[in-house]
Structure of Curculin-like (Mannose-binding) lectin family protein:
Amino acid sequence: MSEKSLAVMCGFYCIDTCTYYSFSVVIAGGNDLSLVWSANRELPAPENTTLQLTREEGLILLNSDGIKIWSTNTSSVSGMNISSSGNLILFNDEGIPVWQSFDHPTDTLLVDQKLIEGQRLTVSYSQSNWSQGPYYATITSALGFAAYTEVDQGPPMMYYQLLPTQNMGSANESVFAEFSQVGLLVNMGTRAQWNYGEYNVIPSSDTVIVFLKLDSVGHLKIYQHDSDRGLVELLDMVGEDMGECQYPRSCGEYGVCREGQCSCPISLDKIQYFRSVQSQLPSLGCSRITPLSCQQSFKRHQLLEIENVTFFNVIDLGAAFPDIKDINQCKLACLQNCSCGAAFFSYQNITDDGYCFLPVKILSIRESKFPRTDFAYRTYIKVQVPNDTSFPVPEAAPHSPSVKNSNFTAIIAGSSAGAFVLLCILFSSCQ
């Protein structure tokens, strides 16, 4: 394949030191590779694993002992091919598809690929650890297309939502999100479309493939892979819609994110309650100087008000406590519940008719300037008053968060990967 060509191929893709592999679909061109689908991402295959295409079960991955690692579990298979758009297809004797990778998305949506209700885009922990990470995106008839982070205490937290606002369809239509040449279409009987055309995105063609990807740190981005430049990031959907501070871990636990800068919460009473986990890396978050203790009197717990900030999860009104509408009741409920880490309150007109959020796990706290909203926000973080309250307030020196993605080596095997035996590899060369 020449440097100027673009190809969609399937084969073995390796991680880390190339001792484990996934059967994958990749885009190759411009001296770059883009992984867009994997069969066995959460169970990487060791060396000496074979790939077989069978009539009775479709594609099968078998380890050296003959134990099945993964299969399409599809009968009446007579062949397979891969489309120029990246869809791996198994077909029967009549040429009718009986299985396709587009029906089983991992972390990527290619053009004309749908995410239907009940499916998820899920991330890996990192590019060297393919076990399932904490972020996912899904679509439901109630909430539309939404991205969440899982936490070790409490339910998943929403940090992005695309919900239809215009009635453009029939209520009998199915619920799905579809990535298209012009944007992300969300269909729930009514339709909403996130249109990226104004950002000069080049539609997919013989030399360009565009796709949407949810990455290991929760970024929901649109990429372009072309034959000249390889992989190019085009647009951050969450950042464009809601600002870069909307990501749940942009500044770590209890870190305050303002215009991409990370700092620790600072009180108005001149007492330092938080410090950086690592002073040189403020994006790693903050910790309480005096840990909360439920064994001592609640009188030593107080709520520290932080001005002009809120929590990323306040966009999910369904996560608010339904029986608490008053700001003072919200604060009291947090103080009376030791597991509550902070009280976040949002309202439109008056503070006795709003929404109360009482999360246990406090991830990044963001600036309260949400675009296209008329809500106001109040934030109260729970702290424990220390015996010695002489902590000085440190000089505020904001730093940029340092969450970055790192690349790792990937190999597509033409006929083998290490000691693998690859029985067939198909590709579609784009002229």
The first strand starts at residue 6 and ends at 15. The chain is about 5% helix and 40% strand.
